[in-house]
Amino acid sequence: MACYDKNINSVVSTSAGRLFDAVSAVLGIKYSSTFEGEASQNLMYEAQRFDASKLAGVEVENDSDNWNLNNTDLLFERILEARLSGVEISELAYYFHERLSHMICNSCVKAREKNGLRPVALSGGCFQNVLLLELTKRYLEREGFTV
Which of 9, 28, 129, 143 has its CA 20 to 30 A from that of 115? Predict the structure, then answer.
């Protein structure tokens, strides 16, 4: 059960920026930013250092029945647990991007089941992140979407 379901000082947000900031901080990459997107940018650079073919990966399922609601608190929890157990920072930075891309793709698949549409527009500040954009585009195209 997510924090917002328990009414614990949590809001549902459409912004991914603060999630990127939080993951960057918990991985010790960037604790504060001097400009918008700085922590996210550094998180992406760290992820790009990782050899993706070595990703062991722990699956994070979206436990929501709502097609447009992703359980990012579970993703964050898994990253924190993995970091505390000694998993390398670059691997976790990549893992974050990879799992978030899958969550986005899965939401699009669920939305398509409801409306049948195949075109997807990737917009917003988080898609200035080249790694997130590339991964999400790849997964969406595999599922038959036009990006």
Answer: 129
CA 9 to chain centre: 21
Which residues have C-beta within 8 Å of that of residue 112, sequence separation ≥ 6?
118, 145
Q: Tens digits of per-residue pLDDT, 93-146?
A: 999 999 999 999 998 999 999 999 899 999 988 899 999 999 999 999 999 999
Residue 135: which region, alpha, beta or left (left: phi > 0; alpha: psi -120 to 50)? alpha
Cβ neighbours of 2 (radius 10 Å): 15
Convert the pLDDT of each residue in 45-60 to its tens digit: 999 999 888 765 444 4
